[in-house]
């Protein structure tokens, strides 16, 4: 498989590739379960929990400030892709549209299809995170999480939830799907936080 689909990082890129990772020649698609099909007309995004309940439509998101992003992408299954180009809405910009209780320290990401993953609010609020609807200049395909996904470049990609449709703000940590099944609660690539050690 190494050589056809993956390669070792070149010396000039070695400082950008976390330990144990290989560079992908393409952009692999990894999904557990069925791929949801959601039209932009029916798509909606909710916030609740320790936040004022709100529902946003696709048009609401498109009316927010739009930004272009170039970010490296690291999957826990040991592949990385550098310089991925996206368009979407910064998490920090989105946070200006919602009211969150100061007691909220954690977030559970909810997605079409039932997938969930947890993230600390401090990790979510980082400047480099964004909600993506465009990949390499094209609308984000369902296989890659379209119509919209969260992208959290500093954590392993299972935290960059595909088909995202809501954020539940909580005071205590609630584990998501992969975290309940043995993955690390945070998932920092440079520390190789792949698994929890509980299984």
Layout of helices and strands:
Elements lengths: L5 E2 L14 E3 L19 E6 L4 E4 H6 L3 E8 L4 E12 H4 L11 E6 L4 E5 H4 L5 E6 L2 E2 L9 E3 L12 E7 L6 H4 L19
Parallel strand pairs: 2-6, 3-12
Antiparallel strand pairs: 1-2, 3-4, 5-6, 6-9, 7-8, 7-12, 9-10, 9-11
Mind explaining what this structure looks like?
GO terms for molecular function: oxidoreductase activity. This is Protein-methionine-sulfoxide reductase catalytic subunit MsrP. Residues 33-178 form the Oxidoreductase molybdopterin-binding domain. InterPro entries: OxRdtase_Mopterin-bd_dom, OxRdtase_Mopterin-bd_sf. This protein is mainly beta. The protein is 9% helix and 32% strand. The chain has four helices and twelve strands. Strands 1, 2, 5, 6, 9, 10 and 11 form a seven-stranded mixed β-sheet that branches. Strands 4-3-12-7-8 form a five-stranded mixed β-sheet. Strand 3 (44-49) and strand 4 (54-57) form a beta hairpin. The model has no long low-confidence stretch (mean pLDDT 93).
Report the strand count.
Answer: 12
| Shape field | globular
Q: How much strand content do the residues show? A: 25-35%
The topology string of helices and strands comes to EEEEHEEHEEHEEEEH
**First-residue to last-residue Cα separation:** 28 Å
* Count of runs of 4 or more consecutive helical residues: 4
Work out the helicity level: under 10%
The class by helix and strand makeup works out as: mainly beta
| Biggest β-sheet description | 7 strands, mixed
Rg on CA atoms, Å: 16 Å
Identify low-pLDDT runs. none
Rounded mean pLDDT is 93
Keywords: Oxidoreductase
Protein name: Protein-methionine-sulfoxide reductase catalytic subunit MsrP
EC number: 1.8.5.-
Pfam family, one: Oxidored_molyb
């Amino acid at each position: 498989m190494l050589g056809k689909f993956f390669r070792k990082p070149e010396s000039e890129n070695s400082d950008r590739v976390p330990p144990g990772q290989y560079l992908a020649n393409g952009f692999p698609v990894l999904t557990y379960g069925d791929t949801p099909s959601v039209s932009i007309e029916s798509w909606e995004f909710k916030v609740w929990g320790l936040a004022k309940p709100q529902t946003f439509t696709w048009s609401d998101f498109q009316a927010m400030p739009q930004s272009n992003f170039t970010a490296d992408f690291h999957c826990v299954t040991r592949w990385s892709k550098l310089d991925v180009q996206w368009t979407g809405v910064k998490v920090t910009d989105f946070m200006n549209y919602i009211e969150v209780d100061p007691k909220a320290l954690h977030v559970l990401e909810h997605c079409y299809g039932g997938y969930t993953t947890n993230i600390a609010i401090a990790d979510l609020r980082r400047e480099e995170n964004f909600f993506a609807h465009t990949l390499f200049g094209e609308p984000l395909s369902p296989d890659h999480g379209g119509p919209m996904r969260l992208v959290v470049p500093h954590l392993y990609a299972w935290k960059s939830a595909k088909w995202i449709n809501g954020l539940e703000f909580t005071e205590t940590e609630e584990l998501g799907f992969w975290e309940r099944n043995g993955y690390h609660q945070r998932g920092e690539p440079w520390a190789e936080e792949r698994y929890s050690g509980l299984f």
